[in-house]
Design brief:
Layout: H1 5-16, E1 24-26, H2 31-39, E2 40-41, E3 45-46, E4 51-54, E5 57-60, E6 63-68, H3 78-81, E7 85-88, H4 100-104, E8 109-112, E9 121-122, E10 138-140, H5 144-160
Parallel strand pairs: 1-6, 7-8, 8-10, 9-10
Antiparallel strand pairs: 2-3, 4-5, 5-6
Length: 162
């Protein structure tokens, strides 16, 4: 949900992982614009694959990816398209309460691409990923600052103490 810089990078990574199937992108813009944005990135460069528009879907590397265009998460057709794990990258729905519509619409798990605005669990890979519990319906993957700093702080703390 959300196809800005983070949403597009998640899609790029998902398309290169054989264990992940990108099912659905929810974004406000039309298919042509979304295809262009995915294909050409001013920071990460041109997408190394094929991107085509097929009606109101994208075909990325030969795989059809459905699009939806709603701002109301209760209306996003996660279940219809088999989207079980959702990257919430709009920056709007950052609490357990605010992602309940995602879950009711068929998502099994939601990962915030930004810091949670409540006490939802935060995971920083390389720091505390072992604290993840499969019963958690949503988790935050922190902020870019936290992801940059926390591994360094952990290493210093583990070796010398802080």
């Amino acid at each position: 949900n959300g196809f800005g810089r983070i949403g597009r990078q998640v899609a790029r990574i998902a398309m290169k992982d054989p264990e992940v199937e990108l099912k659905l992108i929810n974004a406000s813009y039309d298919a042509e614009y979304l295809a262009y944005q995915m294909k050409y990135d001013s920071i990460h460069g041109r997408y190394n694959g094929t991107i085509e528009v097929d009606g109101d879907s994208l075909v990325i590397d030969g795989q059809k990816v459905a699009l939806s265009h709603t701002r109301d998460p209760a209306e996003i057709p996660f279940k219809k398209h088999g989207a079980e794990y959702v990257c919430e990258s709009t920056g709007v729905f950052l609490t357990t309460e605010k992602v309940q519509p995602h879950l009711k619409a068929g998502a099994k798990k939601v990962v915030f691409s930004a810091p949670a605005k409540d006490d939802s669990h935060t995971i920083v890979m390389g720091v505390n990923q072992e604290t993840y519990d499969s019963s958690m319906e949503c988790v935050s993957c922190a902020s870019c600052t936290t992801n940059g700093l926390a591994p360094l702080v952990k290493a210093i703390n583990d070796k010398f103490g802080i």
